[in-house]
Amino acid sequence: MRKIGVLTSGGDAPGMNAALRAVVRKAIYHGLEVVGFRRGFHGLIYGEYAPMELGSVADIIHRGGTTLRTARAPEFLEPVGREKALETISASGIDALIVIGGDGSFKGAAALEGAGIQTIGIPGTIDNDIACTEYSIGFDTAVNNVTDAINKVRDTATSHERVYLIEVMGRTTGHIALAAGVAGGAESILVPEVPFELDHVCERLHRGVRRGKLHSIILVAEGVRSAIDIGKQLEDLTKMETRVTILGHLQRGGTPTAFDRMLASRMGAAAVDLLRSGCHGQMVGIEAGQICATPFAEALAQDKPFPMDLYELATILAI
Ligand code: F6P
């Protein structure tokens, strides 16, 4: 192992820069050369890459987004795109590749591994929807961003004694909604993993008013359905005044939390260590505070378990 490549792919996640910094510095520390591919798999297909030095990752540990840029590259799904990527890899002279991204990026990484390229994945997505790791890089920052938004909405919700629905990201999962809902003290949390009846949500709203609650905050994971539609239905059913806030990409930006920087630093270094010890075709994870590794095929075949105990606790605490 003499030279490794690194790229960030899919939706950006706060902490990707810290992971990149760890990969580059740990690799150079061990005498390896590093090449950075720009815009994810797009850079592999179109030959956009450059050597990375210690200074290439200076002053980025605290920055959100990814300095390598990112993209979704549908061309990589086509055989022609993958062929071009393999040509770029060969021309760049790398012996292995580290892919920082979500499950779509890991499918790409697994395809490269299948084509004979030694590959390691680092989970970087705010959705925290990847199995075989308790946390993915960016989730903690997104949850803090949402919690901060809940605090702000709560002020105006109390003042006007209204019902507020806040729609959050998470793709087809409700991990962000659940964690931020617990941290922000939401009255109801609607997630794709748990079927719900609007009548029950209405009952909870009425019960809240009876016991003197000044407002209600309902978190809606984007994978459920539009918070605007749910808000209209709730207003019709309860005659309570509702407002809807869609947080959108605000959730994905901003300086990464210390937790995400730590996680990213540990995962980036572990990815380099795995390659140095001859392991590849795996993704790095963290379980019970310990860094671990799981083969792509095993991780990609599973859905991440939804923490029902936490969901039940949230329901109890919001009575
Ligand atoms: O996967 C991360 C994520 O932010 C999801 O939560 C969201 O559904 C999606 O990306 C948004 O993608 P885009 O940035 O392409 O609009």
Record keyword descriptors for this entry.
4-stranded parallel beta sheet; elongated; 319 residues; alpha/beta; Rossmann fold; 2 domains; 7-stranded mixed beta sheet; single chain; binds 6-O-phosphono-beta-D-fructofuranose
What can you tell me about this protein's structure?
This protein has 319 residues and is an alpha/beta fold. It folds into two domains: 3-138 and 256-300, 3-Layer(aba) Sandwich (Rossmann fold); 141-253, Rossmann fold (3-Layer(aba) Sandwich), CATH 3.40.50.460. Helices cover 43% and strands 18% of the residues. The protein contains eleven helices and eleven strands. The chain has helices at 16-29, 41-46, 79-92, 103-114, 139-160, 175-184, 198-210, 227-238, 258-276, 296-300, 308-317; strands at residues 3-8, 33-37, 49-52, 96-101, 118-123, 163-168, 188-190, 216-221, 242-246, 282-287, 290-295. Strands 3-2-1-4-5-10-11 form a seven-stranded mixed β-sheet, with helices on both faces. Helix 1 (16-29) runs parallel beside helix 9 (258-276), helix 5 crosses helix 6 (175-184) and helix 6 (175-184) packs parallel to helix 11. The protein is elongated. The chain starts with a strand and ends with a helix. The model has no long low-confidence stretch (mean pLDDT 97). The structure holds 6-O-phosphono-beta-D-fructofuranose.
